[in-house]
Amino acid sequence: MRILHVLDHGLPLQSGYTFRTRAILKAQEARGWQVAAVTGPRQGAVADAVESVDGLTFHRTLAKRPAGLVGEVAGIAAFARRIAAAVDAFRPDILHAHSPVLGALAALRVARQRGLPLVYEIRAFWEDAAVGNGTGREGSARYRATRALESWAVQRADAVAVICDGLRDDLIARGIDREKIVVSPNGVDLDLFGEPAARDAALADSLGLGDAETIGFIGSFYDYEGLDDLIAAMPALVATRPKARLLLVGGGPMEAALRAQAAASPVAAAIRFVGRVPHTEVERYYALVDVLAYPRKAMRLTDLVTPLKPLEAMAQGKLVAASDVGGHRELIRDGVTGTLFPADDPAGIAAALATLLADRSGWARRRTAARAFVEQERNWSSNIGRYEPIYQRLTMAATVDGSWQRSPANR
């Protein structure tokens, strides 16, 4: 089986998107499949048309990052040309395009030209992601147009993969055949998060966390993550738990505003910002944290989409506390594998965290249950099998139809 993945962006850029992609490609290689990827104009400046990163082959679209409607249309055309060239070089059995929808549109053009089956994988709806990032408004003309374009692409793909039940149910409500959709949930590469790192006492002391009860967030600082609510919860939490400290690792569009909010807090001394750290260093910071907090705000994006970070925390054997939005409820069983608190409610966040810190008697049981959940249901080495029935069905149909003639070397 030869799969060409079509990506908005990929390694060496670091994001939840690229880490999920890496996990998929590595797990597919371990299964004995041959994989390659094509990245679009949003990858940014690249030196070579083909690059090897972390042992994976990426074909690059050498085009300017698109801006405005005209730029997006030109970007799709350039992306399609690069996908076609990668098809010529790699000779795949199947195209597997990943959201946003612009990549699906470019891949669909090539799939139809070459008679290749196309799987379109949606990690979030682009229109809802724009609202969450503060670059769009729900219900606007652009929002409705993007939603319609997404539905159009889904209807024309040969199969659709989504990362969670929320996205699947939304597509079914739009009239998409449920038999066409497979859920391929976010998972963890346990080769990367297999054994929790030992606590680095020197690092803890350098951050003033030597004997602290540390609440942590490690990820991107977007508005929808609700970190302003977490910072707002700290005065009440510190009043109840004087040793409570907040460790924020990462960066993003909200960083300046969050730093200003923290500096103005009456418990500013209890809040630490680390900034971005290399992915290879993340485990050192996980090891400092008692409870990983994910206070996502309530909105369509967070109700429909499951995040990756809580799963990484569970794999690290960490306690997880999160807002009760739909995406979190798919991952966390309140009181069993983690704690759920009300979204958009600093007082509720403070109360839930204080209760958790006050009684450690059930911590070991929760950690064990959360780790078992990841190993059994969110482990990429087993999750990857969800793609196999789709790939086999589509490639067999293409072979019977005779629409895609493999080269002799690939028979």
Automatic annotation (TrEMBL):
<dbReference type="Pfam" id="PF13579">
    <property type="entry name" value="Glyco_trans_4_4"/>
</dbReference>
<feature type="domain" description="Glycosyltransferase subfamily 4-like N-terminal">
    <location>
        <begin position="16"/>
        <end position="187"/>
    </location>
</feature>
<protein>
    <submittedName>
        <fullName>TIGR04063 family PEP-CTERM/XrtA system glycosyltransferase</fullName>
    </submittedName>
</protein>
<dbReference type="InterPro" id="IPR024004">
    <property type="entry name" value="PEP-CTERM/XrtA_GlycosylTrfase"/>
</dbReference>
<dbReference type="InterPro" id="IPR050194">
    <property type="entry name" value="Glycosyltransferase_grp1"/>
</dbReference>
<dbReference type="Pfam" id="PF13692">
    <property type="entry name" value="Glyco_trans_1_4"/>
</dbReference>
<dbReference type="InterPro" id="IPR028098">
    <property type="entry name" value="Glyco_trans_4-like_N"/>
</dbReference>
